[in-house]
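Saturday, quiet lab. Running sequence design on the structure tokens for the scaffold JK sent over.
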């Protein structure tokens, strides 16, 4: 491994972010996390380093600097062209042992939730999974906020006894903000011959076709829950989403039932959404789901139980059976605007 300045010799808290990329495209969460780390380290005069692994990926380093990294360590190697757990974990372990970061953050993506725990186990350190907030306490320690224990509480976790303090953070929790002209160091490291190349080999990669409006940047989200009851009635959720140019969202039980695809899940194990309008139908409002939607601008909840917890976060609470309400709503909107997609405007 090539040499860079030792993090510890600078006596500044060293915050590392794993910069996730696939096929040369940076995941948004990596930019969100370097920005979040930059905001935190402004308070404790720390240093944000992004770790970028892959092949022909040097061009992405500038983006990480523009989003908040002070420096980017790039390991550009053909053996890292396609993500594989053991090669990536073995390299990260080596550079962690060499440079001794205080904090190491990963996106809670399918890649991050596989790689981060493996690395934490290799380094014998702690990991907080699926964090929905990061902050400093008065002593400058990193606090990691995780919805936990059945969803009823938010646990605040601090990793005092081992280094680095590791966390996976939900995509969409922090804002992605780019500053043109931001300066940072870009350092190219070389991987040694001792990368662990064992484990499964990737023979072929196929991109999955996503159908319908993506949840990621939708202005309107129509989410359905277990209360919808069956695949036939789920079509009402899809129909309303189509009419409002919205994206379909779902709770975990609705995904488990197969009414919606996995990428539609909102919440701690799914996506964090912040649309202008969120309509939740047949959803009770458990913490695991609510952490993924409570930052929406305007929340409408339809539930037949007037005591449903989702009403605690709703701006408009509609108590009633969705089987009566949704067909009326769909008929009303269609009568006024036809079957064309109607963009919602809020005032
Ligand atoms: C570690 C962990 C992670 C998790 N991550 C997630 C996550 O990311 N996202 C997620 O969503 N869940 C997650 N869960 C599950 C979560 O705890 C809840 O179980 C789930 O959110 C409940 O889904 P629901 O509201 O659809 O179902 P329920 O809680 O069963 O609620 C159904 C609601 O439908 C209402 N209803 C029934 N019939 C009608 C009708 N005809 N009209 C109107 N309303 C009706 C009922 O009154 C009820 O309030 C997680 C759980 C664990 C343990």
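Result came back. Writing it out in full:
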């Amino acid at each position: 491994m090539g040499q860079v300045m030792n993090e510890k010799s600078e006596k500044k808290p060293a915050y590392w972010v794993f910069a996730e990329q696939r096929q040369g495209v940076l995941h948004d969460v990596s930019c969100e996390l370097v920005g979040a780390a930059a905001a935190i380290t402004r308070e404790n005069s720390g240093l944000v380093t992004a770790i970028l692994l892959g092949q022909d990926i040097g061009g992405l380093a500038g983006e990480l600097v523009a989003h908040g990294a002070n420096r980017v360590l790039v390991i550009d190697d053909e053996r890292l062209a396609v993500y594989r757990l053991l090669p990536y974990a073995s390299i990260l372990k080596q550079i962690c042992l060499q440079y001794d970061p205080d904090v190491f953050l990963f996106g809670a993506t399918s890649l991050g939730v596989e790689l981060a725990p493996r690395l934490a186990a290799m380094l014998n350190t702690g990991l907080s999974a699926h964090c929905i907030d990061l902050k400093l306490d008065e002593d400058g320690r990193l606090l990691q906020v995780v919805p936990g224990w059945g969803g009823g509480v938010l646990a605040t976790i601090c990793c005092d006894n081992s280094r680095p303090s590791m966390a996976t953070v939900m995509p969409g929790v922090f804002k992605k903000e780019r500053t043109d002209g931001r300066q940072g160091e870009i350092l190219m490291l070389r991987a040694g011959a001792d990368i662990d190349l064992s484990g499964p080999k990737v023979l072929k990669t196929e991109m999955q076709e996503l159908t319908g409006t993506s949840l990621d940047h939708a202005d309107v989200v129509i989410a359905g829950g277990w209360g919808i009851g069956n695949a036939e009635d789920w079509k009402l959720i899809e129909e309303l989403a189509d009419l409002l140019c919205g994206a379909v969202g779902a709770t975990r039980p609705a995904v488990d039932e197969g009414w919606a695809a996995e990428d539609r899940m909102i919440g701690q194990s799914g996506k964090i959404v912040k649309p202008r309008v969120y309509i939740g139908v047949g959803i009770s409002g458990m913490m695991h789901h609510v952490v993924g939607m409570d930052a929406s601008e305007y929340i409408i909840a339809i539930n037949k139980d007037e005591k449903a917890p989702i009403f605690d976060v709703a701006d408009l609470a509609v108590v009633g059976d969705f089987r009566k309400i949704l067909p009326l709503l769909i008929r009303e909107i269609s009568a006024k605007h036809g079957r064309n997609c109607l963009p919602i405007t809020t005032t």
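Notes for JK: The first strand starts at residue 14 and ends at 19. The helical segments are 28-44, 61-66, 85-99, 112-123, 231-243, 252-256, 287-290, 322-337. Ask whether to fix the surface positions before the next round.
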